[in-house]
Design brief:
The chain is mostly beta strands. The chain has helices spanning 3-11, 15-18, 34-37, 108-124; strands at 23-31, 46-52, 58-61, 69-73, 76-80, 86-91, 135-144, 147-155, 166-171, 177-184, 190-202, 205-215, 229-238. The chain has a single domain (3-234), classed as Lipoprotein localisation LolA/LolB/LppX (outer membrane lipoprotein receptor (LolB), chain A, Clam).
Length: 239
Amino acid sequence: MNTLAQKIIDAHGGLETWKTFTSLSAHLSQGGALWALKGHADKLNETNVTVGLGDEWASHQPFGADDKVTLLRPDKVEIKDRAGRVLEELDTPRASFIGHTLETPWTEPQLAYFAGIAMWTYLSMPFLLAEPGVVCEQLDDWNENDETWQRLKVTFPKEIATHSTVQTLYVDAEGLLKRHDYDVEIAGDTPGAHYISDYTTVSGIRFPTKRRIFPRQGDGTSLPDPLVVSIDLSAIILS
């Protein structure tokens, strides 16, 4: 494994500990401009998410005021009522975003797809670096806010549904994540700078509980406004 990737994984609790768990759940308090822009203001302001560890799947509940439940897998999205009846489904969901821009509204299954791949990626990182087919390459260091962060370029195989094929992680001297860059392919390749902070330890694994995503400029710097997405996590459980 890439030396920096190993350092990052170890700093977050280590692969051996991570692999003793198969799922993770958390409460999310979310905000930012993206949700209303996509036609779904307040739908996921307060919700719970459960994700698979290794096997890629994610479920949000409640999904809206009527307590619907989502199930995201890379090849299919389902939205169910509280009794488990399927209300909507979308096969090959990635293809449904072809031609989208940042301003294109999303259907409910498209929102469920975005939210699912996003939270699966965030909650599985940095342990995704050890997945088969993931390629890591150390880049030059980055200076921001009087700090120097090491950077890791991550290239994902097509089997993993995530924001973009190529992403960049920024870590501090200890190896903890500070920032995570990607281009949201399903929203017109919109570039984002995702800031990560406020760590807690759960069952030996270190998790950031505060995430703030801002626009990213061509030179790699971020803009202070607008706040695209905010995510505060609590009640994290590994099982």
